[in-house]
Amino acid sequence: MKITDVRVRKVNDEGKMKAVVSVTFDDEFVVHDIKIIEGQNGLFIAMPSRKMGEGDFRDIAHPLVSETRNKIKDAIFAEYEKVLVEKIDEAVEPAKE
């Protein structure tokens, strides 16, 4: 299984949720609504989840082994960093008239 696309769909500058991401596997299967969250120990990813009865959340889709989770996390963070650099470059670049 290969990660063939990562799209950062929404970036937030404020709050704990920093971005919402979609990841495509083998150009055939996509998982939407993976969140990048700022925690006490830095950034982490949260897989798409559904709220259950008493306020608990259960993942809708998630990797079964930590190696796969790490591959997904690394691909997401790499794309997120590129998006952040592009935002900074756009803010610094003077408007052309």
Describe this structure in words.
The chain has 97 residues and is an alpha+beta fold. It has a single domain, classed as Arylsulfatase, C-terminal domain, CATH 3.30.1120.40. Helices cover 28% and strands 41% of the residues. It has 1 helix and 6 strands, in the order E-E-E-E-E-E-H. The chain has a 4-stranded antiparallel β-sheet, covered by helices on one side. Strands 5-6 form a two-stranded antiparallel sheet. A hairpin with a 2-residue loop joins strand 3 and strand 4.
* Dominant shape: globular
- Reported CATH architecture: 2-Layer Sandwich
Low-confidence stretches: none
Q: What's the main sheet like?
A: 4 strands, antiparallel
User: Roughly what fraction of the amino acids lie in strands?
Assistant: 35-45%
What order do the SSEs take from the amino end to the carboxyl end, as H and E?
EEEEEEH
Q: Topology of this structure?
A:
Blueprint: E1 3-11, E2 17-25, E3 29-39, E4 42-46, E5 49-51, E6 57-59, H1 66-92
Antiparallel strand pairs: 1-2, 2-3, 3-4, 5-6
Which features would summarize this protein structure in a list?
97 residues, alpha+beta, Arylsulfatase, C-terminal domain, four-stranded antiparallel sheet, two-stranded antiparallel ribbon, 1 helix, 6 strands, globular
